[in-house]
Fold:
Amino acid sequence: MVDFKKMSKRTSPNGYSYFRELTFREDYYSHVPTRYLVVDTETTGTKLFQGCQAFAVSAVDHKGEAWFWRFKVNAKTRNVIVDRDKLKDIEEVVSSYSHHVFHHGKFDVRALQTIGIDLTKLQDFWLGFRDTLLYSHVCDSTEDHGLKDLAKKYLNVSNDDEEALHAAVIKARRANKKLGNSTAEKVQEDYFLAGAELDKYALCDVVDRTEPLFRMYVDVVRSEKLAYQVAREHALVPLVFDMESKGLRIRTKTLELERKRYERLAMEEGAKAHKIAVSSGMPKDFNPRSSQQLQALLFDKYKLPVGKFTASGANSTDAETLKDLLDGCGETSKAGKFLSSLLLSRKSYKACDYLTEYQSLCVNGIIHPSFNQTGTNTTRFSSSDPNAQNVSTKSDMPLRIVFGPRLDHYWIDADYDNLEMRLFAYACGEEELIKAFESGESVHRVIAEELNGPISTWKELNKDDWKKSPEYKRTKNGNFALIYGAGISRADATYGVSGAFDRIRKRFKKLASFMQTTIDKAKANGYVQTMFGYRLSVPQDRAYAALNYFIQGTAGCVMKYAMLAFSEDTDISKLGGSMVGTVHDELISEFKHEDEQQQLIAANSVKRAMESPGVRLGIPLTISPSVIYRDWTKPSEIKTTFVSQF
DNA sequence: GCCAATAGCCAC
DNA sequence: AAACGTGGCTATTGGC
Structure:
């Protein structure tokens, strides 16, 4: 087992000071500053890179003195009409405090930038920055972190103000529409149309909600000794803020060409499917994107055999089911022709939808995904507008091709090698698996041989590439299922070997006992702690997920520390490198193109930064950086020379 | 017109 | 009751 107590030394690996620095800062986050200002903004929408702006600012200070400023909004263009005097006033008040409290401050700081107020320029702004959203996640990672929900739950503040505002906005929208102005998709984005209801609501948010919540959380964090974790989340905010500002370059020409290509394919195949459906007796307005109408055709008209069911008991029409049906009825039958056109058009629609979304969020060739520190139950980031963490890598839909480094720049794209499985093996202390990791042998293969016999006896062994053999692939999936908390039957089915789960537990005894202890702990305490001590509450009715929380949570922590290391690495800052995105175990950073020697320094530095959390844990986390010149689908290998010291 | 539920599918 | 985790986005559908 890893001796987590050893870590209390708070030493920092490879010369990085972030662990020590966070310890120093614990005091900041477990005490209420003597003077502070709570700030909130109201905006014309959430997409601040797409023209949405702040139109109102509310604030209250430690003494209870409150302010409210509001700007006019042009209802036609949705542009905020900025009043210079008010702006000056806001700046004067805000800059007279060294501590600023927000709920989701990253958003408010960005919102204020849209009207020309840049808080990040204030002296030591990020040091005085406090965010109740971050406190909320540290104190209870699983609960809803929305300001209204928290205030209702902990302060018993009603949502009357929001309901009144909502009603007023719906009314105002109708009037606005009559004037010929378009309304936003969501009611919240039209809050600027309301009158006094908005003013009241905005003040409530700071006076009755954020300010008292802040004081409450500081107490909780002090008494439950969570300040270190709060410090870590706060330390990340400026890095994430800069990462979002930087954004990813979109290869706009490729995007448009690909979008058109997928669109054409979607239309063509959709038309074929439609024609067949109508000739089979479906109405002329038959919509192949409707699962209900599909069910009527496939299971009522064609009488195809029912496969699996959806959560609510309907006959599933997902791709897996349709492929099975296609295998069953053959490609030449009417139903078969329909199904193959449908599958292709659906896939193409999907690609087209993604690309259309990217296009709509692209500004001057750059896209700025949000990375949300509190968006998951497990310390992972979530990403939105667009979600940069689910860009298709499929060979028949390689959408990563539309993302790439800026001109005269390259990316260092590095991901951890089998991060979660590795953390699992080391956390268990399972020597044989650890040995496999340290010798570079495939752990999936070790387990595959346990379940299927020696590799030489595998039935469908592909000699050139055993990783493509079904034995290997099934085992890999099974290992993931294990980490995800699968039960016996699901695990066995995924491994494709009956009794697989039990055999693994018998062979790897420490793995079995670690799984059980983790679940027991979660049942007893209501939470598990990652290897770095971040507390993750586990829903009581789903204790089986505890292992996943532990592993995924530890992996999430690894990435967060890696990002801290990246930002304090002097070689990287000398090269002007900056992070542009992360996909859970992958970190993408951008550097200006100079020469090969500098590129090697960049790759080595990224490797050093990303491996440093492993040094701290005593777990060798290996990463292999690659270089990207043109687009995200084409990494080229770079030989690094850096070796982490344990 | 508004909203929530449902289904489907992309990533790790 | 069910038991494979964490997310985000779009389209359809039906209730109010």
Notes: The longest strand of chain A covers residues 54-61. Residues 87 and 116 of chain A are 8 Å apart (CA to CA). Residues 1-6 of chain A have pLDDT under 50 and may be disordered. Residues 170, 173-174, 187, 291-292, 310-312, 314, 316-319, 346-347, 350, 354, 380, 383, 387-394, 397, 399, 415, 419-420, 480, 552, 555, 583-586 of chain A lie near DNA strand B (CB under 10 Å from a C1').
